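Many introductory courses stop at the sequence. We go one step further.
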Amino acid sequence: MIKIIKLSLLSIILFLTSCSKSDDNITEPNLNDDINYFIWKGMNAFYFWQKEVPNLANNRFSNLYELHTHFKDYSSPENSFNSLLYQKGISDRFSWIVDDYVALENSFQGINQSTGMEFGLIRYSNNNKNVFGYVRYVIPNTDAALKGIMRGMIFNTINGTQITDSNYTNLLFSDASNLNIGFADYNSGNPIANGSTTNITKEQVFENPVAIAKVINEGSKKVGYLLYNQFSSSYDGQLNAAFNSFKTQGVNDLIIDLRYNGGGSVRTATYLGSMITGQFNGELYSKEVWNDKVKAAVTPDRFLNYFTDKINVTDQNGNIVLQETINSLNFSKVYFIISGSTASASELVVNSLRAYIDVKIVGTTTVGKQVGSITLYDSDNLFRDGENLNAEHSYAMQPIVLEISNKDDLNESGGFIPGITLPGIQLAEDYDNLGVLGERSDPLLARTLNYITTGSKGNFKNEVQKYSEIYNSKLATPAGNNMYSDYQR
């Protein structure tokens, strides 16, 4: 698809060069002018809401002088970019720009600067300014793992300072490489420091998103359990190997745990759906809608994704990285564990499969991110391998360029809600009793296993936590909770 789209989009890109560069008013552009032109050019060509933004109209600027002059009112590339977003925070909640595209590319493949401690941040129950963190999991062989940090630990200070809703970014996500973590006792949602502290160091961490793949014997049933934390194409082989293990061991049921999975590759999401099923090979998996410019340049079938029986991963030059047959289970039912951190490509799998098989969900409402992006670079054709890639800066954009739905043209912009949008159980994590991931001590897994074996949702009052997360460590990575199209890679 990449070659066809690139060639077709030349007509979109070429008109941009018609802005007269010989205009008498034009002075020699500086680096900021170059970056601003790249931002406008990319957003004009690909942005999903291009028609809705007056400053992105084709005839908005008659020459580069006008364009450069307009953007001089903005103090940074980030401000220039944000000025072009359509109803920022309302219609467009997910477009962003980065100043280091190498870090972004690494993050898409699970490589980030991290201590190895993945966590969520929660407000105190009696003080809406103070914040505490809870450890979701620890990446193996990282500094956090070596220092003995474990899932379920609570912390409320960093470098001796109480975490609040106004300082958590500076305390936890600055460029500082060392953090002193102050641990606490949960105390019904109002943590009290317990005097235990640990110094941990950030380093480049390679995280395998196929975190746990095991078979749980539950009565007469063999249940496959997969904790999957990112749709990263670098680990498609490991994901397929996990399904080979499930298939070899003869699992009867399947639980896919996406509670910490903020998304990633659309193609990998299609592979996962094909691994769970297999009986729908060649049938429509999902549909993408792009802006009118892209739709006019590309034949409609180019934005249809299909169930497949093959993994085919290539690099940006078209060289084959991985090619193998998918290990499919041919299941007609699947259970997903979800949360308020489940987004984009994770929601895509749930959404696409519900049109074909019985999908049940356990957890809390997902993000509702039914849109995706691509990475745009400052080159002649806006791609990484395009000519004249600007070596003077490392800015790249990740604008929303598509909306995605299942074969029935359905998605859930308000998120998937257990028991409402799909059959299931509403149950939040208990920060005072997280249990061990992959073990029955994990309340969400235990409830899902009971759901499988008895068909019962159980008798419970409102078990959804009244304390909502305000942020988590995954959102701070360059990839965030992005869902991206692979066609440009």
